[in-house]
Amino acid sequence: MPAVFVHGVPETPALWDALRSHLSRTDAVALRLPAFGSPRPQGFGATKEDYVAWLVAEVGRLGAQGPVDLVGHDWGGGFVVRLVSTEPDLVRTWVTDAAGIGDVSFEWHEFAKIWQTPGAGEEFFRQQLAQPAEARGGVFETFGVPAESARALGGWADETMAAAILDLYRSAVDVGKEWGPDFRDVPKPGLVVIPSDDPFLSAGGARSAAREAGAKTAELDGLGHWWMLQDPQRAARVLEDFWASTP
User: pTM to 2 decimals?
Assistant: First the structure.
């Protein structure tokens, strides 16, 4: 019964390394989204539904001996929202910081709107990838990510990842309306992580979605979107307290 971690955009499984180092359990697995630091599988459309289908298959494989403890961040958290809405028996517990995607009134942040716009999204990533990784990492520092982790984030993106990000976001213009109605009364214990300083995800939308899903909430005062990098020890403690509270 492993703990399974799912990263978001524009990230790789290394996002979870620091947090996992503070866990007492040794069965934590960090998945890699297709096309994120790896080749894009042939025929893989990189839509939100493609990624959910991939995650369902991965969790089913890893949980062959029993339901898993599933944790997702950013788009990884969005895929968790969809999986527990449609395949809840695959998990023992679930955690997401992107519960707002399951709110029917969900609205995208400004970067997402750029990526969803043909031409503008391609130009955004053309400019970003033309910069050295250190310069790209500086952007993440402005959002509170420690310098070393920010440099790593800045170096992960490439043309394959950028193309997948564009396809993913363009498939999800109305994700709240499409996924929100099913994110209700999830029958497995859930925890919605709500960082106080996240500029991309609405705290109000997360709380609303958590109530609809019947999930607990964990308010992380003073932390932002990349809370697992800002304070990995605190983040690990929040997860372990939640898992310990679940029979």
Answer: 0.97
